[in-house]
Amino acid sequence: MKDNKMPRVHQKLNSDALFFQLKDQDQKQQEKAVKREDFRCDCQGRYCDGFPAGINPTLVDKIDELEKILKKKVQIISGVRCEKRNAEADGSNHSFHLLGRAADIRCEPMSVDELAAVAEAVGLLVIRDYRDDVVHCQWND
């Protein structure tokens, strides 16, 4: 019969460096989870749960990079869209909003051209939408 009072044997499974690396990674993911809400479909729950597609993480990273350069928060006017909301917004049938790979953004008081230039500098593909005063940004890779 085994003695239930045997001491616990501790093994070193992880390095301290790995612990802090994962802690930092998890904190960044939590920050992105908050940021994720900015990309919610703007149908306001009429047609979908807000996330009919996943959001491309590189698109989020590029917009984060854009905000760091501008030292300002970028307003996401339209992120991921469901098909019905995309039709209402007069989006194309193959809009990258449907894939979670596009966002229409604004950053007051910048002009469409100024914002588009910085978005292009961080590697985003852009369309200047002067009608709605936004910059459509998308990530294709």
Automatic annotation (TrEMBL):
SUPFAM superfamilies: Hedgehog/DD-peptidase. InterPro entries: Peptidase_M15A_C (IPR013230), Zn_M74/Hedgehog-like (IPR009045). Pfam families: Peptidase_M15_3 (PF08291). Residues 49-137 form the Peptidase M15A C-terminal domain. This is Peptidase M15A C-terminal domain-containing protein. It comes from Acetobacterium woodii (strain ATCC 29683 / DSM 1030 / JCM 2381 / KCTC 1655 / WB1).
